[in-house]
User: What shape does this take?
Amino acid sequence: ELLESNPDRREFMEQATLAGAVTAGGLGAGYWGYGDKLDARLRIGVIGTGDEGNVLIGAMNPDVVEVKAIADIRPYSIHRAFYGDCYSASSLAARPGLNAKYGYKNRDEAEKEVTVYEDYNELLERDDIEAVIIALPLWLHHQAAVRAMRAGKHVLTEKLMAWDVAQCKEMARVADDTGLLLATGHQRHYSILYDNAVDTLRRGVIGDIHHIRAQWHRGNLPGKDSWRPPLPKSEPVEEVKNLIRAARKEGPAAEAAVKQTYKLVLELDAWEARVNNPGRYKVKPSEIEGWEKKVAQKRAQLKDIAVDAATHGYEAGELSSGYQRSALEELIRWRIWNRTGGGLMAELGSHQLDAAGIFISSQFGGKQKVNPLSVIGVGGRHIFPHNRDADDHVYASYEYPGKGYFDDNDPRKEIADDNKKVVVTYSSINGNGFGGYGEVVLGTDGTLLLEREQDVMLYAGSKVDTKVKYDEKDGLVDSYETGGGYTPAAQAVTAAVSRGYREEIEHWAKCIRDDAPAETLHCHPKVALADAVIALTTNVAMAENRRIKFDSEWFDPKSDAVPAGRQPAEADAVEA
Assistant: This one.
C-alpha cells in the first residue's frame, strides 16, 4: 500500500532525477519495484468502455496486458474504445483508443485480435481470457465482478467498489473463496506524488497533523453538466430546424430548450458541413482528417438511440417533481440517479477521503489504515433543477484519531485522550470550480498542499507567500524554490506526474502472474471496502441529517454489520 514508503524509493527518485531519466509513463514500475514488461502478457477483457473504461484503455502498457475482448451495449462507447475520444486534444490524450495504443491501423484490423461483445457473459466464457477490467456503472460492479470470479477470472473493478456495503463484502468473500485477485481502482494508491507526500508526513516534516481540508469543485451549470450529456435523437436535421423556428416565436428559453434537446443532431450537421465544404468554413487541409474523425464519433454517439436499455436492467421512472426519465436516459446519465450511482461522494469524494485516511495513518507508523470515528454531512440540489435525484452539493466533516488519541499510538488500545482528533472537512460542489480539487494537510510545523493530482507544494507554518525546502537538520526553511522542489524526489514527481492508472493495471497483472497473495495489491478488498464504507455512510448521514459514528465491524469483510441496507450473504450463497 501507499503506507509502506521507504527511503529506497526516495533514493530511486533522486537518482532518476540526476540521471535525467524522468519521463512520463515510464517511472512507476521502477519506483514501485516491479518490471514494466511481462514475459507472458496477461490476456484480459474490458467490460464497460465508456468514459472511465476508455481512460483505463489509454493507461494500458501493451508489454504487460493484451486486450482480447471488450464488452459494451453502447455503439458510442465501442467506437471510442477503438478510435479514442477525438472531440478535443485533452480527451484524446486521456482516451487514445485501442488502435493507437496497440498499433492497429483501423477497427477492422483490431477486431482480428479484439472481439466485441454486447453481452459480457459471453466474454466470461472465453478460456483464453485470464482477467477482466470492469468499468461499468456503479450499480453493476458487484454483479459483473462476482460473475467474473465465478468464471475463474481475476478482476480489477473501477471505484467505488460496489453500490452498497453488503455488495462490497460479498465481493471480498467471493475473492477469498475463489482465490482470485480482486483490485479496485482507487489510483492514488499507485500515485508517486501521493506516496512521496505520505513519506514527507511520516518523516514529520510538517509536524503533527491537526486538520485536513479537501475539495473537488467543478464549474458545471444547468445546460453544461458533464454528468448529464445530451441524449441521442433520430429526427432529421431539417425537421429539427423547423422545430427551432417554431420555438423561436415563443421566446429565447423555448428556442434554447429545443437546441439542447437536439444538440447531437445539430452538431453532426455543423461538423459534416465543415468536411463537405471546407473552403466555406475556412477549414485547413491539415484539419479535415480531424473533422472527419469527429463526424464518425458523433454518428456513433447518435447510434445509441437504438440501444434497448430496458433489456439490460435500466428503468424508466418519474421523480416527485414530475420529471420523466427513460431507461436510455438512466443508462447514459447513470451518475445522477441514486439507483445506478452513488453521487458526488462515490464518484469524487471517495478518492479524497481515501487520501485523507492515508495521510493520517502516516502518523501511526503507516502499518495499517486508520479509519474515521464519525461523520456529519449535508447535501442538496442547489444549482440544478429537479431532473435528477443525486445531490449537486455535498459537505461533510469527519473525526479521525490523531496523535495521542490512542495509547502509544496503537489503534488497538484504549483511548488515551479523546480530544486528540484530526477533523477532515470535505466539499464537492457544482456551479463554481474555484480552487479545483486537491487536499490541504495542516501540521504544527507546516502545510502540505496537493492540487489536481499533479502538483505538490510545501509551506513553513502558516506562510503561503513562499514555498520552502526541507533540511534534515534544520527542518523547514524559507526558500524561493517552486513546484514542490523541497527534495530531488519531489522535483522528479512534479516533472512526470502519473495519476496511477497505468501503475495499478501493471501491478495487478504482475501480482496475477506471480500468484501473489491478495494483500500484495495496493487496493485489495479490505482497503477498497473501507473507502466504500466512508463514502456510502456519508450519503446516509446526509440523507438522514444526522451524525453517524463508524462501527469498526463495518470495515471488516468477514462481519455482517453494515451501516445501512441488507446484510451480506456468505461467499457460497452469493448469486450474480
